[in-house]
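Project outcomes to date are best conveyed with an example. Our students and postdoctoral researchers have been running inverse folding experiments weekly, and each run begins with a structure described purely in tokens. The record below, which covers 90 residues, was selected by the lab manager from last quarter's runs and is presented without edits.
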């Protein structure tokens, strides 16, 4: 199952079932690689119109741009100050 179809399932179903579906999506998202995350980020603004199963040229270009932005950030090190602040002020 592709990430966008799982994303749609999390957000478009009954609220009582959303917790279980969100947990399933979380487990799927943990296994995504950098390219998969970049493509998913390109699709999430409108998952009903944009698809990662058969990405259009636009989605591919946005995915490549997202991957470049992730590389330019240098990984997750830029989040360390935020993590430290959250640890100090729970």
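After processing, the design step wrote out the following sequence:
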């Amino acid at each position: 199952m592709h990430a966008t179809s799982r994303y749609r399932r999390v957000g478009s179903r009954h609220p009582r079932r959303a917790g279980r579906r969100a947990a399933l999506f979380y487990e799927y998202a943990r296994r995504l690689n950098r390219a998969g995350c970049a493509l998913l980020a390109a699709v999430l603004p409108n998952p009903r119109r944009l698809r990662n199963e058969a990405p259009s040229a636009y989605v591919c270009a946005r995915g490549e741009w997202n991957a470049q932005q992730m590389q330019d950030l240098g990984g997750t090190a830029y989040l360390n100050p935020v993590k430290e602040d959250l640890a100090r002020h729970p």
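Residues 3-88 form one domain. The chain has one domain: 3-88. The training component of this project remains on track.
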